[in-house]
Input
Amino acid sequence: MPPSARGALTALIRRHGAWLMAAGAGLGILLPDLAAAANPALLPLSCLTMFLALLRVEPTAFIAVLRRPGLGIVVIFWILLACPVLVWCLGRLVLPADDVFLRAMTLIAATPGMMSAAAYGVLLGTDVALLTLVGLPTNILAPVILPAVALLLAAGRRSTRR
Output
């Protein structure tokens, strides 16, 4: 592909990234056989996307975010603690404490975003350095946080059955 065509394609993707992602998801829903055929490429493409996203992070921007970590810490706190608590509290308004759906919603809310979110952040024009700063610790802490949330939910389930 000639450099001018590559630049035009990149500009098109950046300008319409959100719509292209929505169209891709819709295409996968409308054409499940095509989605199934593309499934083997999902992991390699996700890894490539994550790698390319990390390459897009400007070292100076990342260092600037590290120097002022306040927003990153707030976002990490929100993702790992506030979201699951908020989902559980809102779910409790309509569901009993021992409901399987409530526990599933809470676990999903405690799950961090994908590391490749920075790649989508490039398309959407967000702060890629901040997304990377938040994505790394939340994904590293996920194996600790998710079992802890599951244990808390199981303990709550046992206490409501007594």
Summary: Residues 31-161 form one domain. The longest helix spans residues 128-161. The two ends are 67 Å apart (CA to CA). The chain has a mean pLDDT of 84.
